[in-house]
Design brief:
- It contains 15 helices and four strands.
- It has 369 residues and is mostly helical.
- The protein has one domain: Ribonucleotide Reductase, subunit A.
- Strands 1-2 form a two-stranded parallel ribbon. A two-stranded antiparallel sheet has the order 3-4.
- Helix 2 crosses helix 6, helix 7 packs antiparallel against helix 10 and helix 9 packs parallel to helix 11.
- The protein is globular, with a radius of gyration of 20 Å.
- The protein starts with 7 loop residues before the first helix and ends in a 13-residue tail after the last strand.
Length: 369
């Protein structure tokens, strides 16, 4: 079995099924290796953040946030409602489940950012950090609410207030927040712009109107990533020494999670005229190009060991889902074996040689993809 040849039985094992609002909310609350998490951090450390080394770039970015060029973007028009009415009955049950999984995980990810940024805003007095977090929480709240409206078309809206209270939180040191959130925002841009460009070329393959919003939407994600890039460039020690190993770890973790998760949605990508593997490597390519602004190393996505490990992680994920469905002692033992194999595969991935990069003088990047 190769990642692109997953059948729906395997997909169903990996993503489950959503038939009710209760199912949707339970899926959003559940925390696994593949699902978006909610985070908290050391607010006092963030309060001490000094952005004076990048003051000119920072002030220019704050002006962009204040301009709020997407203030009127996340509104559903009459054409949106008409497309929903016409297109949704045409979705096969299998494609419907994959699309719902996409919407729920995307909403959870956006709302995760909203919660984290709001909590930082409330717990710091540093005016630079407080201002930034206010703007980013505003953006992520719009994104989550917009996705939730599409879930409500299926009568599957998420109770965001309940989700905030019931989902577990993971503590990350500030530097881990910088690495992980920077990558999350930039890869989010790469994912959305790749889908948007594909459907711009092939509008007949746009099976839901939400994809028409992706271009301006992903520019919010891009700007969020720029903010964390400036934070890291203002503190060069975050990009040196043993921290280079942490950067490698987070890049690989984000890429591996995305690759496995995306290969649970082969029908959704096929419906858009995309192959899951080719789509993911295009997203990796764009993300790698963007992250040269701040990361001194770059993962070699074309290395044969990297590609073999990515494929292997999908196979392990399928085997693990089968083991957990089997249950009992034998299923538990198989699950443990899958965990060991996943750790061994990721360790092998970690030791794939990386490319060394010299950081550019210009810290800002424009969303030109």
């Amino acid at each position: 079995m190769t990642p692109s040849s997953l059948d729906f039985d395997h997909v169903d094992l990996l993503i489950g099924t959503v038939e009710s609002a209760e199912d949707a909310n339970a899926k959003a609350v559940k925390s696994t290796v593949l699902t978006p998490r909610f985070y908290t951090t050391d607010f006092a450390a963030l309060d001490r953040l000094d952005l004076s080394p990048v003051r000119a770039e920072w002030d220019a970015m704050m002006q962009e946030y204040e301009g709020d060029n997407n203030h009127d973007h996340f509104q559903r028009d009459g054409a949106f409602a008409e497309e929903v009415r016409q297109l949704m009955p045409q979705l096969s049950p299998e494609l419907r489940q994959e699309f719902l999984d996409f919407l729920i995980s995307s909403l959870t990810s956006e709302f995760s950012g909203c919660i984290l940024y709001n909590e930082i805003r409330k717990n710091v007095s540093n005016p630079d950090v407080k201002q930034l977090m206010t703007y980013m929480a505003r953006d992520e709240s719009r994104h989550a609410g917009f996705i939730n409206q599409s879930l409500k078309d299926f009568n599957l809206g998420i109770d965001l207030g309940s989700l905030k209270k019931t989902k577990s939180y993971t503590f990350f040191k500030p530097k881990y927040i910088y690495y992980a959130t920077y990558l999350s925002e930039k890869i989010g841009y790469a994912r959305y712009i790749t889908i948007f460009r594909q459907l711009e070329r092939h509008p007949d393959k746009r099976f839901h109107p939400i994809f028409r919003w992706f271009e301006r939407w992903c520019n919010d994600e891009f700007r969020h990533g720029e903010s964390f890039a400036l934070m890291m460039r203002a503190h060069p020690h975050l990009l040196q020494g043993h921290n280079r190993l942490w950067i490698r770890f987070f890049v690989l973790a984000v890429y591996a999670t995305m690759f496995v998760r995306d290969h649970t949605r082969p029908l959704m990508h096929q419906a858009m005229g995309l192959d899951s593997t080719n789509y993911d490597y295009e997203v990796f390519r764009i993300t790698s190009e963007i992250s040269r602004q701040v990361f001194p190393i770059e993962v070699d996505i074309d290395h044969p060991v990297f590609r073999a490990c990515m494929t292997r992680l999908v196979e392990i994920a399928v085997a693990d889902a089968q083991a957990q469905q089997q249950g009992g002692l034998w299923g538990h033992l198989k699950h443990g074996w899958c965990v060991l194999q996943a750790v061994a595969t990721f360790t092998r991935l970690f030791f794939v040689p990386v490319k060394q990069r010299t950081l550019p003088q210009d810290m800002r990047v424009q969303p030109t993809w």
